C-alpha cells in the first residue's frame, strides 16, 4: 500500500494542532506565574471578626486541662485534639489512637462524667472540665474493681482496646450501679474489640457491679453502738452454762441423734 502524499509545503494539520496546544499551555502557565507573583506581593486580608468574639491561633495558644484531678498547662494549636495532647504532650498514653475518626472507642475517656471519644474533642474546647483517664482510676498495685474483674474474667487478649472499654464501663456503673446484661451490652456498643472478647467483658462488668453493690450494702449496714463504761458481766448459773448455751447444745445433740451419730457427749 502506497503512503499518503505529503503536503507540498507549510504545516500539516497535526503539526498545527500540536504547536497550538503547546503555545496555549505555555501562555496559561505564564499567566499563572504572574498571578501568583502578584498575589504574593499583597498583604493577606484580615478576616472579619464579629464584635465580642475572641480568636485563637493559628499558632500554639496556652490552655489548661484538668485531668485526673491535676491541672496541666500546655501550649497547643487550636486544632489539636484532646487525644493528641494527652499522648504527645502529657504522656498519658492509656487512651489509644486506632481509628482517629470517632468510631472504635479505643480512646474513650470520661469528660465531666460522660464517656466521650478523645479523638473527637478539641483540647481547647474542654478546658476547665474534669477529665478522667484509665491512668486515674487504678494502679497495678491497687486495681479498680473493673480492672480486677477484667483480669479475673479474661476480658482482654491484645489489650489495645481494654482502656476504652473500662472507661465506658465505668461511665455506666457511675450512673447505674446495678445494670442488667442488656444495659451493659448497650453501654459498650460504642467500643470495638477486634479480638472478640465481648462475652468476657460483659461478665466482668456484671461482676464488678456486684462487688460495688455488696460494698455499698456493707457500708450502709449500721454497726451496733458500744455502751460507755465497762461491759456488764452476765452471771452464770451454778452449772456453768447459761440458758442460751444450754439450748444450743441441746439442739446440736438432737441433730446428731437424727443423723444417727449419737449425742457425742
Could you tell me the CATH topology label of the domain at 138-220.
DNA polymerase, domain 1
CATH class of the domain at 138-220: Mainly Alpha
Q: What is the C-alpha radius of gyration, as a whole number of Å?
A: 38 Å
Terminal CA distance reads 132 Å
Outline the biggest β-sheet.
Answer: 5 strands, mixed
Helices and strands, in N-to-C order? HEEHEEEHHHHH
What percentage of the residues does DSSP assign to strands (E)? 5-15%
Total beta strand runs:
5
Integer average pLDDT: 82
Q: Looking across the biggest beta sheet, what order are the strands in? A: 2-1-5-3-4
Could you explain the architecture of this structure?
With 265 residues, the protein is α+β, with helices and mostly antiparallel strands. Among the domains are: 57-136, Roll (Ubiquitin-like (UB roll)); 138-220, [2Fe-2S]-binding domain (DNA polymerase, domain 1). It contains seven helices and five strands. A five-stranded mixed sheet has the order 2-1-5-3-4, with helices on both faces. β3 and β4 form a beta hairpin. The radius of gyration is 38 Å and the shape is elongated.
Amino acid at each position: 500500500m502506497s503512503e499518503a502524499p505529503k503536503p507540498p509545503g507549510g504545516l500539516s494539520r497535526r503539526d498545527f494542532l500540536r504547536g497550538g496546544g503547546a503555545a496555549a499551555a505555555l501562555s496559561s502557565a505564564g499567566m499563572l506565574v504572574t498571578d501568583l507573583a502578584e498575589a504574593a506581593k499583597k498583604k493577606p486580608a484580615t478576616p472579619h471578626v464579629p464584635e465580642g468574639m475572641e480568636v485563637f491561633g493559628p499558632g500554639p495558644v496556652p490552655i489548661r486541662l484538668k485531668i485526673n484531678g491535676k491541672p496541666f498547662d500546655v501550649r497547643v494549636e487550636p486544632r489539636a485534639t484532646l487525644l493528641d495532647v494527652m499522648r504527645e504532650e502529657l504522656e498519658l498514653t492509656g487512651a489509644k489512637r486506632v481509628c482517629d475518626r470517632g468510631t472504635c472507642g479505643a480512646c474513650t475517656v470520661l469528660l465531666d462524667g460522660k464517656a466521650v471519644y478523645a479523638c473527637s474533642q478539641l483540647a481547647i474546647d474542654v478546658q476547665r472540665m474534669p477529665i478522667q483517664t484509665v491512668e486515674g482510676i487504678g494502679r497495678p498495685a491497687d486495681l479498680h474493681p473493673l480492672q480486677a474483674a477484667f483480669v479475673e474474667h479474661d476480658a482482654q487478649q491484645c489489650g489495645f482496646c481494654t482502656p476504652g472499654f473500662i472507661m465506658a464501663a465505668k461511665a455506666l456503673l457511675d450512673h447505674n450501679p446495678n445494670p442488667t446484661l442488656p444495659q451493659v451490652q448497650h453501654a459498650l456498643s460504642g467500643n470495638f474489640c477486634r479480638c472478640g472478647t465481648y462475652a468476657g467483658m460483659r461478665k466482668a462488668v456484671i461482676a464488678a457491679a456486684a462487688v460495688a453493690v455488696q460494698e455499698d450494702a456493707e457500708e450502709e449496714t449500721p454497726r451496733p453502738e458500744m455502751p460507755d463504761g465497762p461491759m456488764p458481766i452476765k452471771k452464770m448459773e451454778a452449772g456453768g452454762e447459761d440458758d442460751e448455751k444450754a439450748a444450743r447444745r441441746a439442739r446440736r445433740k438432737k441433730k446428731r441423734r437424727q443423723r444417727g451419730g449419737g449425742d457425742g457427749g
